[in-house]
Structures are given as structure tokens and as C-alpha cells.
Amino acid sequence: MSSPRATTTTTNPLVPVLILCLGGLSAALTQTVVIPIQSELPGYLGTSADNTAWVITVTLLAGAVAMPVAGRLGDLFGKQRVLAVSAAILVLGSVVCALSDSLVLMLTGRMLQGLAMGFIPVGISLMREITPPAMTATAIAAMSATLGVGGAIGLPLSAWIADAHDWHALFWVATGLALVTLAAVVLLVPHVPDANPGRVDFVGALGLAAGLVAFLIGISKANTWGWADPKTLGCIVGGLLVLALWGWFELGHAEPLVDLRTTAQLPVLMTNIAAVAIGFGMMAQSVVVPQLLQLPESTGFGLGQSMLHAGLWMAPGGLMMLAFAPLTSMLIKKYGAKLTLMLGAAVLGLGYLVAFGMMDAAWQLLVASCVSSAGVGIGYAAMPTLIMDNVPMREAGAAVGLNSLMRSVGTTLASAVMAAVLTGSVTASGMPTERAFQLCFLIGAAAAFLGVLIGATIPRNRDASLEPVSLEEPSTVRA
Asked: Which of 33, 48, 12 has its CA nearest to residue 159?
């Protein structure tokens, strides 16, 4: 099986890599851009706090659905085309949010911003097709890191913009980034003739969307509604039942949205399960550390930081993920993606143990956050490589999209679990206790070390026919 080749090239393959990373960063920023203004949204939009909570939730749900669907569309119609459409959706969603003064318009824009998250898995799968062999692992690592980098730098950036300007400026900045991304993707990212014959599985897409939305709503709203509330149980159980029916349908479909037989192969299956654990570990620190930084010093263990300062203390962790991209590439080449994944999960767990023993000063949490983020960066970079090494080229987009979805499931579970722990042990003033924060760090460590154990079960791929070795010179564009 020969590899598709780009119809156009740039003088330097680094150019499209940087563009794809910028697009991933722009999409990931939407996950945290409204956090600094969340408490003010009811006044801005003229509604209740319960309603404005959906401004964050709807983006999460749309992103979870979009990632595997966009991956499949990339396999069918060409990845560069789907990237351009995703960037255009991000532009539209950001403009709608920037013009919003009502809940309905804001939710519409935020849903569109979430749908643009499909850019990330499609961009990761395209990396293998447009970079020379010597650059591929580093490019994938850098693109994978944008998930964490965007979230980490988005918090202080949006806090500063919201403090210095009208809140709508947050979304005008997002619009500008999205427009630059769209133009660059259209003009500078090579189109690879990687489209495969087939039809879009609309029924499968609707079934996956219905099951995921119900399940994730149940998880994300469990602490608000109560874990034993009929609404929570109905969403979780109902979502799982719909997903089970969806799986049965997909197995009998000639051209499924996701080839479950391929994803059931042990290397792919165990990598996706590890993605849940590592995604859980990444989100746990994002929930816990900012709260600990902002807790009043009068508690005896809070650090009294403002939202902006807390974001600035967290930002180096996100940059650490990007800084580790070249090192991760070397590890993958020397030791393989499996051992690299296990190392990343172990470093993530170590970061939580550092936080458990060092939570008396902001700089200590900065150190712990950097260690954890390095682990996330290593693990996130290894997972797409493991997936693409074990699936046919024609299914790479959908497979990487499903892996990204599993990370999202892990982050959603972590957000719910951490919130439950922090609200389950409070002081007389209603604030979380020190013991609650320590327990959160231990749970995060346990999830990360579970990822190490899961990674150890991933077998080596013995089917060399899945991914032929490229013999092109490093100066050429590879597919």
C-alpha cells in the first residue's frame, strides 16, 4: 500500500506544523476562555447561574462529539479540507460569542467553538502525511501538547483581557486567532490526496452524539443534581445504553463511523483506556491547584492568590508540555511509544506526590504542576503514535479522534470526582479542608499510576502491513 503524497509543498515542512499547532492552540483556548468571567455571566447574560453553567458544559459536550466525527470525515474527504471547515466553524462560533448578550446566542457560539475541537485529532493524524520521517514524532508531540498548552495559557490570558477590557474582547481575540488559522490552513497546509471512498454514517454519528451527551451531562452535573438523583442516574445509565446500542449498530454497518473491530484490538483498546486515566490525571490538577492557590490565607493553608495570579502560576506547566515535545520524540524513537506512554504516566503520578508533600507555597505548586505537566505532555504525545502504528492509514483520523474522545471522558470524570471530594469535606465556613486537597492529589496519583499499569498491557504491533516504513529522504514531504 503506497502512501498518499501532498499535491503542494512548502519550502520548509515546519511551516504547516506550526500552523496546525496554532490551530490546535486556538481551539483548546476555548475550553478555559470563559472561566475568569463565569461568576459574572449571569449579570452579563441576564439569567441564572445554573443556566450560565451550560456555557462551559456545552463546549465540552460539542467537543467530545466532534473529535471522532471530524476524524472520520477527514478520512473520507481529506484532512486538510476538514481542518479548514473546523477553523471556519471556530471563526463563526467566536464571532457569535463576541456579539452575544443573551444566553441562547452565547450557548450557540460556545457549541460551535466546541465543534471546532475536531481540528486537533485531524491535525495530529495529518502530521504523519505532511512531515518528513525525522520530524514526524516531534510534530505529533507538539500538536498533542496544544491540548494542555491552550488550557494553561488561556486562563491568565483571558483573566487579563477580561480585567482590562470589555468581556466581549475575549471572543474577538479568539476570532482573530481563528481567522489567522483559517487563512493559514487554506493557503499553507498542503492538501494530501488522502480521501478514501465511502459514505458518512449519519445514524452512527447521531447515536454516538446522543449517547455521549447523555452520559457526559450526567457526569458533569452529578455534583449539582446529586449522584443519586434520578436525572443523574437516568443520564448516565441511559447514555451507556444508547452507546451499547450504537456499538451493536456499528458492528453491523458496512461503513461505520468508527470501526470497532479495529479499536478492539489490544494495542488500540488499551491505549484508549490509558487515555481515560491520563486525561483524568491532567484535569485533576487543573481543578484542584487553582482552587488551592486562590483559597484565602485565613484558612491556614490557602495561598490567597487572585484569579490572574493563579493562572500565571499555572501557565508554566502548559508551556512545559510544549517544551517536552522534542524530548518525547527522542524517547519514542529510542524506546518506543509504549514505554514512553508509561514513563509519561509515571511522571504525572510523581507530580501529584510532589504536590501532596509540597503545598505550602505557590512556588511549590508551580514545581508540582510543571512535573505533572511534563508527564501529561509525554503521555499525550505517545498515544497518537501508538494509535496510528496500529490502525490502517485510511482509519487514522477516526482512530485518533476516538482516542481524543477518551481523554475527554477522563477529564470529565476528573472534574466531577474532584468537585465531589472538595465539596464533601468542608470547613465551618464552607471551604474545602486541607485533607480534601491532599485526597485529591492522591486520587490523581492513583489514576496516573493506573495509566502506567494499563500501558504495560499494550502489546507490540506485529502486523507490519498496517504502516509501511517510509524510505523517503527527510527533505521530502511524506504521507
From this structure: 33
